[in-house]
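Q: Give me the 3D complex with biotin.
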Amino acid sequence: MRLLTPEWHAVLPSTNEWLCARLRRGDPVPPGTVVVARQQTAGRGRRGRVWLAAPGEDLTFSVAVRAPATPQQALAAPMAAALGVAAAVEAMCGLAPRVKWPNDVLLSGRKLGGILGEHAGDMLVVGIGLNVNMDAETAAGIGRPAVSLSMATGRRYALEEVLAGVLDRLGGWLTRWEEGGFPAIRSEWVRRCAGLGEPAAVQDGARRLSGRLVGFGAWGQALLARPDGTVAEAWAGEIEADGGHSRRSSAR
Ligand code: BTN
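A: Here is the predicted complex, encoded as structure tokens.
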């Protein structure tokens, strides 16, 4: 999909909230709208956590995408976004990020980026946090293993240039998802996926699932093989422990 020229803001509570609020009010938000904040004061992570980023040093932005017809189809949108981020990081920095279900971007097992998809009106807001120039001390203060491009390569990056590189790849991966759903991104997802074949646990709503991560279903749901030979499907939650860098709100 064609992504529009990014709207840069100095400070927003959350780029996801900003776009969701505009959509809920009925303001026009064309598909492909990109909103970026140099600083978020209330960055949201998945599962009620907060997202911490270094002000002016990391990328925090959201993209408006036309919502698909069913919730199942929406599952793979942030997965496609994670692949776009990973591909851009590889092209720009020569690193080889991996992805972790449902939508983390990892480098050597530490979290480089996270993605949060939220529905508002007839759109899906895909929010992306990417650690760009965060230093090791700030990363250590997050409480979960985190890494930035700068920590991995020893150089600083211009946020505008990294964003341009990411949007370049993101548009292509979101188009693949829009046109072909998870099957269209499956092979690349599996190629980059961390933890395949390993024991995994997922809290999917009220259900606690555990088993060996053996693959992904037609919509991108995680398939966990249990010792009794059955296979459980996880549609929500995340593979634990996620090595992430968002914190539960209560830990603030
Ligand atoms: C996660 O928990 O891994 C998802 C983190 C998503 C963070 C991004 S930063 C830009 C956008 N705005 C938010 O408030 N959250 C997302």
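A quick observation: The helical segments are 15-25, 71-74, 77-93, 136-140, 149-153, 159-180, 186-192.
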